[in-house]
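Can't paste images in this forum, so I'm doing it all in text. The chain is below; anyone willing to post the predicted structure tokens underneath?
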Amino acid sequence: MEEERRVLPFECRGCWHVWEEEYLVRRGEDRKGNYREIWLRSGVAVPPPAQGAICPRCGCQAATTFPEGYLRWHPELIPPLGPVTPDATPLLSPVRKRHSRHLT
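Text version of the structure:
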């Protein structure tokens, strides 16, 4: 039986969370000579990944898959490892302040 390790990227269409899941795919013939493909995660047989995967962040069932290695070419989709430091630049409004005029 042939084994292949696959890492597939997913994106949630609800909260836009991006993550990867690792699978072990076993291919070969069963005892009767029929071709079989078994997908495993952490040693447990699971259905092959497809549209509608469940998001680990929000539980939405509208996640989509991408081709293997997709995140390697789009590093902006990989969340940072540590906490994000806020930008210290003050926010300035493009609208001018109104000066109140008192009529006396």
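The radius of gyration is 24 Å. The first strand starts at residue 2 and ends at 12.
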